[in-house]
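This part of the workshop introduces the protein records we will be handling. Getting from the letters to the tokens is the skill we practise here. An example says more than a description, so a record of this kind follows:
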Amino acid sequence: MPKLITSIICLFLSVTSWAATYVINVSEGLAYQIGKDKVQTALREIYQPLSIDPTVVYLPSKRGLALLNNGEIDADAGRIDKAMASYDNLIQVPYPLSTVRLFIYCLKSKDCRPSEQVGHLIVQGTLISEQFCKKRQLSCNIVANDTSAFSALQKNYAPSLIANDRFAVGTICASGMTEIYARPLTEELKAYHYVHKKHADLVPKLTRSIKNLMDQNLLQGRFQSLMDAAKECDLKVTFLTDTQSEVSVDSRK
């Protein structure tokens, strides 16, 4: 009997402890691109004024959002607003964390246009890329991460990659590429933090916290762009425009 009582008490304490934990999902793709340490640091900075020390989990995009929409976890690190229309139980913290832009990347400038005739690459879990392919009725093949995408480009398995402008410095530098072309496919899109509606009372506090960190220029460095990555290694990026003009940014100069 004493053992049974002890087991019940331990179970109760375990459930109580989990219920008191504030869990934030980070898309596996975002964690891969930016780095887990940077994401965790940014989230703890955001929640520190609220006296919340969040637990961070790394899940595939759709699975993490489903758990959040069901109220099984508490928040999502950051998402582009256009990708969130179908999640009715989520509230956007209205001060943006960063801006993101969708590009098509290629090793030959002639391949840097979306085409229904070829198979483009997209990285697993990037909802905005999936939505773009569906809207334009493109044939898009999913790869696990940026490393797989760059490898496929270099081996001519596919002519182009449709992805946002967030890249891990280590990934793009380790790829061995010395030059890449990029054409923008969208305007700048804003990325926001999201919470489940049961935490609606936290939204004003989170808004103030994010704004204060941005005003102090403390969050911006957590979210690197392709240009930031290019500066770290021997990579020339040539941006193509709709008028066929080219703007090159050469990190080797």
